[in-house]
Design brief:
By secondary structure, the protein is an alpha/beta fold.
Length: 449
């Protein structure tokens, strides 16, 4: 794993930790989302598997070390620091909520406990990986929610912020509930179902539209999805109907899809192709899909690209990775952040989720990690993934994460699932955490207990 995929200040702090001897201390860092984006009542956590793989593979090459030596920021760093980096491996612990778990603002999604250099270097990668995939998985869950059981296919790689982002978006969208992705690398890498049709260029490449569709059918058989709107959606559908079986269905990519889908459905049915499905694509999101279905449009599947692969209406998360406690010489010091609107509770934590018997009694309770369960109906969310640098349980694959997300989202209060103006979720903190916060405040002010 490329250890230079980080911000420079992670490395300059690492050099400082080494120079001052702090690198021998153990630090606990927690990654959380400070606040939910607008119009989001929950988040679907995603990217935990890649976070663990990064930590397990964290190391520097000699070429990377040689590069660091050329940077002026390290001109005073002791040579032993570079030797330390060359031998560096992750030897700490990772606790995380299972991928696909719905979470809320201000809750730790994962905790890293490790020697300070190891824990600090991970910040940039973990924030980027968890925040991005969580954004996309959450967007997918919203779209799937309004689709009423109809298939949603992620089509967004060509509009993603990079090819790699598109590949990860395919994975995250699947975890969030999509049926599959158009990204073949996502399918290969993560075992996700892949889907595709044909572009307008396929039809345009032939002098005759009917011949283009006939050749496509000969190639794809029962998997044939005809793009019928290159020239005229109604005439294109009539030509497809003349071809008959085998067929999966047709795709409408433009125009008034509510009106066109009804006309297309009639043509297919009159041709005896009642099993043929209609897919709609083209700048769709959860609001447009909800509107189409509310109008009674006979659409069986949706391909969603730009809006999904970029989470266009909420393209960033206020993700933070903060030091919450340090251990040195057998002593523990709790750390906190008091900046306005950016308070971070001290101490390594556990999130307990109460089994909700109704939407009204759904809540989370956050304690210090070693406090007892707050009640028989509460279960801990943060689970051990890595201990002492070793994987302690198999990482969930995309299929397992998707299944967990589908089940867990059903327990989210209805108010939090609303597309617009979602309601709040109840989160409480233990008296012990509040006590530690006050102690940290007094220490900051130079007060005595």
């Amino acid at each position: 794993m490329n250890a230079l995929l980080t911000d420079l200040y992670e490395l300059t702090m690492a050099a400082g930790y080494f120079q001052t001897g702090i690198f021998r201390d153990s630090g606990s860092f927690e990654l959380s989302i400070r606040r939910l984006p607008a119009q989001r009542g929950f988040l679907v956590v995603c990217g935990i598997a890649q976070a663990a793989e990064y930590l397990l593979g964290l190391r520097f090459t000699t070429g990377e070390i040689d590069y660091l030596r050329t940077l002026p920021q390290f001109s005073r760093a002791p040579k032993e620091f570079f030797a330390h980096l060359l031998d560096l491996r992750f030897t700490g612990d990772l606790y995380a909520v299972p991928e696909g778990t719905p979470m809320f603002g201000g809750e730790p999604l994962l905790r890293v406990r490790a020697p300070m250099i190891e824990a600090q270097l991970a910040e940039t990668y973990l924030l980027a990986m968890i925040a991005f995939q969580t954004l996309i998985a959450t967007k997918a869950a919203r779209i799937v929610q309004v689709a009423g059981g109809r298939s949603i296919i992620e089509f967004g790689t060509r509009r993603a912020h990079s090819p790699e982002a598109g590949t990860l978006a395919g994975r995250a969208a699947y975890v969030g509930g999509c049926t599959g992705t158009s990204n073949v690398l996502s399918g290969f890498r993560y075992g996700i179902p892949v889907f595709g049709t044909a572009a307008h260029s396929w039809v345009q490449a032939f002098e005759d539209e009917f011949e283009a569709q006939r050749q496509l059918q000969e190639l794809l058989g029962e998997g044939t999805i005809y793009l019928v709107d290159t020239y005229d959606t109604i005439e294109g559908t009539r030509k497809v109907a003349r071809l008959g079986r085998p067929i999966w269905g047709v795709r409408i990519d433009s125009g008034d899809r509510a009106v066109l889908s009804r006309a297309v459905r009639k043509i297919l049915d009159r041709a005896g192709l009642q099993e043929a499905r209609i897919m709609a694509t083209g700048d769709l999101d959860e609001y447009k899909i909800r509107e189409l279905l509310a109008s009674g449009a006979p659409i069986d599947a949706f391909g969603v690209g730009t809006e999904l692969a970029t989470s266009a209406d909420a393209p960033a998360l206020a993700a933070v990775y903060k030091l919450v406690e340090m251990e040195s010489g057998g002593n523990t010091r709790y750390t906190a952040k008091f900046s306005e609107d950016k308070i971070m509770m001290p101490a390594a934590k556990q999130v307990w989720r109460y089994r909700a018997h109704s939407g009204e009694d759904a809540r989370d309770y956050i304690t210090r990690y070693d406090e007892p369960a707050p009640g028989p109906d509460a279960r801990p969310l943060l689970e051990p993934v890595i201990r002492n640098g070793k994987l302690v349980k198999p990482l969930a694959d995309a299929h397992q994460a998707r299944a967990h997300a589908a089940e867990a989202i059903r327990t989210v209060p209805e108010a939090c699932l609303r597309l617009k103006d979602p309601g709040p979720y109840l989160i409480q903190h233990s008296d012990e955490l509040l006590r530690l916060l006050e102690i940290a405040r007094k220490q900051f002010r130079g007060e005595q207990e």
